[in-house]
Specification:
Blueprint: H1 6-19, H2 28-36, H3 40-58, H4 68-81, H5 92-114, H6 119-122, H7 129-137, H8 140-147, H9 151-162, H10 167-174, H11 178-202
Helix pairs in contact: 2-3, 3-4, 3-5, 4-5, 5-10, 8-11, 9-11, 10-11
Length: 203
């Protein structure tokens, strides 16, 4: 009768240990490290953690020709391709959101190069399931008002008040100074208040 060697048993124990890891308890940096070593499920956990947050940032950039869901998928693909450039001294969340925001800006730039913005065409659009879920979570009137703001003002509002990011974190995501973020938020709040007043007057 043949017996399995101690070395072989040790190898199987390591494999079983790897399978039983509860990834939801790992930090972002630990998940990134494991992903870089080939553990795809660790990246799936990162997607689960930040999918909805990324969708919120990209929502103002999505229009009829491209859905929020498509932009979210592209963001995570870009992040995966650049994962080896991530600096663990910084927060993964802000690094990821910076990629998402840059994608949104690029998408907006390409759209304006292709077709001139037409409010009648772009104002009311029907997105995918992700878009519908986002609309359901936010007050309809507030959501409508935010979508009328330029992306440069709508995105900071979402990051600050829907997601609770600090001024420093928002500055990292948007590539702005903290004073510039505060100034943009101040103007965005005033613009939003004006939009809400206009909407109430029409009722």
């Amino acid at each position: 009768m043949e017996y399995t060697s101690t070395v072989a048993l040790g190898g199987w124990r390591e494999k079983l240990k790897g399978l039983s890891i509860q990834r939801e308890r790992l930090t972002d940096n630990e998940l990134v490290e494991r992903t870089l070593k080939g553990d795809v499920r660790s990246y799936e956990e990162l997607i689960n953690r930040y999918e909805r947050l990324v969708a919120r940032v990209l929502y103002p950039y999505a229009k009829r020709e491209i859905s929020t869901e498509d932009l979210v998928q592209e963001t995570f693909l870009r992040a995966y391709d650049r994962l080896d450039t991530f600096n663990p001294d910084y927060r993964f969340k802000t690094w990821l959101l910076a990629i998402a925001n840059n994608l949104g800006v690029d998408t907006l730039r390409r759209r304006r190069e292709v077709v001139e913005f037409n409010p009648e065409v772009h104002a009311g659009y029907s997105g995918g399931p992700e878009d519908e879920a986002l609309e359901a979570e936010l007050s309809k009137s507030v959501q409508d008002a935010i979508t009328t703001l330029p992306e440069a003002y709508g995105v900071p509002l979402i990051l600050r008040y829907s997601e609770g990011l600090s001024y420093a974190e928002i500055s990292e995501v948007l590539g702005l100074t903290v004073p510039a973020v505060k100034s943009r938020l101040f103007r965005a709040r005033n613009m939003l208040a004006e939009r809400m007043r206009e909407a109430e007057e029409k009722v």
